[in-house]
Amino acid sequence: MTARPATLAEAARERRDIVTGEVMEEDRLIRFVAGPGGAVVPDLARKLPGRGLWVAADRASVETAARKGLFSRAAKAKLSAAPDLADQVEALLRKRVLDGLGLAKRAGDLISGFEKVAAALAAGKATWLIEASDGAADGRRKILNVARKSPRPVETLGVYSAAELGLALGGENVIHTAFLAGRGAGRWTSDVRRLSGFRPLLPESWREEQPFQAGGT
User: pLDDT for 84-127, tens place per residue?
Assistant: First the structure.
């Protein structure tokens, strides 16, 4: 039997997945609403008007909901879900996570540069290591070795190129970045977790450079 939420606030953060019927926390779900013309629209920020239709934050669940007409059934109205709806969600999450890094930079929660990142990792101050997907393997191996020895568990993200990170963080090319532990990291991590349901968080070529802790795995 599922335990009841202790407070109304906790209850408000739990929703029912329209695919499995399971009740779970909002952070594990994607909210959709009916847009113009009955089109199913992803609402990652959970702010769009209308009744929310909630689906587990993974590619298979979104594809199942679109293919089997589960949005229409849940809404009790004729809705149209695009065949590439899961791809749309992935693209939106990818942008949201990158934008979140930019916000964290302005809030002082990020540091970049090999030496600064290595120092933060060694001191146990970082909770995420964000590595450019196209960075040099030698530098990546060195910083991952520092991360493995950190007194705090460190997860790794390798989704974005150096140019993408530079554009988001206000640098020309950014290779090594650390997200410092704190409330900001917790909020950002929830979006990374959702992204991990739609795509790997590390390039396949990095698997040979294991062991290290990949985010969302």
Answer: 999 999 999 999 999 999 999 999 999 999 999 999 999 999 99
> Could you give the C-alpha distances from 82 to 30, 47, 75, 91, 194, in angstroms and in order?
15, 21, 16, 14, 20
CA 15 → CA 29, 104, 145, 206, distances in Å?
Answer: 8, 28, 40, 36
pLDDT in tens, 161-211: 999 999 999 988 899 999 999 989 999 999 999 999 999 999 998 876 554
- Could you give the CA distance from residue 37 to residue 44 in angstroms, rounded to a whole number? 20
Q: Which residues pair with 23 in a beta bridge?
A: 16
The residue type of 195 is L
pLDDT of residue 12: 52
Tell me the β-bridge partners of 112.
177
Kind and range of the H or E element at 157?
Answer: strand 155-157
Q: Taking the mean position of all CA atoms in its chain, how far away is CA 99?
A: 11
